[in-house]
Amino acid sequence: MFETISNLVAALLTLFIFSFLYKENPFYRFAEHLLVGVSMGYAIPLVYNLTFIPYVYQPIFLGHKYVFIIPAFIGILYVFRFSRNYSWLSRYPIVFGMAIVGMGVPLSMNTQVLVQMRSAMAPIQDLNTFLIFIGTVTILMYFYFSKAHTGLYGKFSKIGVWFMMIGFGASFGYTVMARISLLIGRLQFLVGDVLHLIK
């Protein structure tokens, strides 16, 4: 009985979301707001149990490690984002967060840039290494703006554009495939679990 009711509610909310394909309407807005509300209602206690308790309450009040008061205070400054007069205080934790992101740049250089450079400098033995070499060189030529993209140089830089478009198309196609798989899952739920037309 409970499973039947939950399936009907889930099917109804799914149809509310699908109604956006026609145009924005109150049913879609209701499902959207419900999703945001339920997500926040789930996220707040989750963050409280997984972040506040182990990283603020236990170290400070139980472990007496009072140095943790400093990052806790910096995190509390985020709350001032909701104040008109003191919203500038929320910029400080944002700055610290961006600094932490900046500290990760050397690590990402190794995983993203240096690995690509090693692949481009490998001996050309087969078609794959040849394509990696040509793609890297022609894309770098395209982004070298100190020389006009005319003549033979312009033709090589256009090859770099083709490599970039193929890469962007592949990543976009992967994104579309992921969304289509979500759509197929919802349709299988509606037709199979709710209407019982497929097993």
Question: Would you mind describing this structure in some detail?
Answer:
The two termini are 19 Å apart. The protein is mainly α. It is built from seven helices and no strands. The relative contact order is 0.05. 76% of the residues lie in helices and 0% in strands. It is extended and about 70 Å long. The chain has helices spanning 2-18, 26-62, 69-76, 91-103, 105-121, 127-142, 151-194. The mean pLDDT is 92. Helix 1 crosses helix 2 (26-62), helix 1 (2-18) packs antiparallel against helix 7 (151-194) and helix 6 (127-142) crosses helix 7. It folds into two domains: 2-105, no CATH class; 122-194, no CATH class.
**Count of strand segments:** 0
Give average pLDDT, whole number: 92
Question: Could you state the order of secondary-structure elements as H and E?
Answer: HHHHHHH
Helical element count? 7
Largest sheet: none
- Rg, nearest Å: 26 Å
- Classification by helices and strands: mainly alpha
How widely separated are the two ends?
19 Å
Shape: extended
Regions with pLDDT < 50 over 5+ consecutive residues? Answer: none
Percent range for helical residues?
Answer: over 70%
Return the domain count. 2
Fraction of residues in β-strands? under 5%
